[in-house]
Amino acid sequence: MNSLPAGYALLEYRIEKVLGVGGFGLTYLALDSNLNLKVALKEFLPGDIALRAPDQSIGPRSPDTAESFGWGKRRFMDESRTVASFRHPNIVRVMRFFEANGTAYMVMEFVEGAALGEWVKTRRPLSEAQVAPIVAPLLDGLEVIHRAGFLHRDIKPGNIYIREDGSPVLLDFGSARQKATELTAVVSPGYAPFEQYHTHGKQGPWSDIYAFGGVLYWMVAGSMPQEAPARVREDNMAAAVQVGDKSRFRPEFLAAIDWALSPFEDQRPQNVAEWRAALLETKSAQQPTAETAPTSKPATTPRPRLPADVLKRAEQRLAQHIGPVAGVVVKRAAARARDEAELYLMLADEIEDKDERKAFVRQAVSISGRPTN
Length: 373
Known about the structure:
- A six-stranded antiparallel sheet has the order 1-2-3-4-8-7, with helices on one face. A three-stranded antiparallel sheet has the order 9-11-12.
- It has three domains: about 10-110, Phosphorylase Kinase, domain 1 (2-Layer Sandwich), CATH 3.30.200.20; about 115-280, Orthogonal Bundle (Transferase(Phosphotransferase), domain 1), CATH 1.10.510; about 310-370, no CATH class.
- The longest helix has 20 residues, at about 65-85.
- Helix content is about 35%, strand content about 15%.
- It has helices spanning about 65-85, 115-120, 130-145, 205-220, 230, 240-245, 250-260, 270-280, 310-320, 325-335, 340-350, 355-370, and strands at about 10, 15-20, 25-30, 35-45, 50, 60, 95-100, 105-110, 115, 150, 160-165, 170, 175-180.
């Protein structure tokens, strides 16, 4: 394995062991010597275009791959910055990102607990009462990702952990991409939808929903779904409503899994809210047929754009509290804020310290004189 050796020091992080290997790089267990805290350290090392030198630095395999490696490293840093802006208890927390050894690194919280596969193994046969408390918070986290304009693209049992307190967390954003960018083919057999098998597939929130549906199918049926390409021409996979134990799961729950696992993207739920309603009965919902499934997003009223100097000032002030991710956070909030005061009120939610948050809110009040509630 072409990994950093145990004991290797990278800034204040000391490598302890390899946690996982993927197409985009390696993830290590490391110790933050400043905080005496275990962290997960992800290293950008795409094996097909990059290699490690004897001095542990990483570079392109050849002049022909130099451009791809540089582009990938920049993308890794951009996505690290965006994932670091996600503030949700069921999304793995990114603490830092930096460049070293000729490549890029992402520092994440180390999740103490068990992979979903290990957690399930000791609890089969499962019931809806056991599965729903895991599904609901993960869907909330996934919705945060989608609202930020990103797709996870690699939801599978191995990327879901159950913390020691029983709460679930979604890991590994190495395949995550903005919906507006060119999306490469990313495949975890059984969980990847057909549109992820080729670069011109129509990927969207429905793609992550398919993968999540695959995880639920595996939990209900005890086996992973068939690979998506095998189901496109002739779907012979047994439906969840057929293989699921109806004494343990509501028929509606099982039917919602089958809805998510439709081989054709326009016949699936188009967003998390739509699927959540059918799956968890959060509100009344009727599963659409292929003819009635929504194929476009509802029109929205555009917000007025705030001046660049207002956004820059807000970013500088917020950065004093949350660091370099402030730019991404401000950009997201600005898309919804009607004026500068409302922008500051939104940004205040990102500040953990109570006194600092109050001071930040006072800036919003001083701008417009509006009361806060």
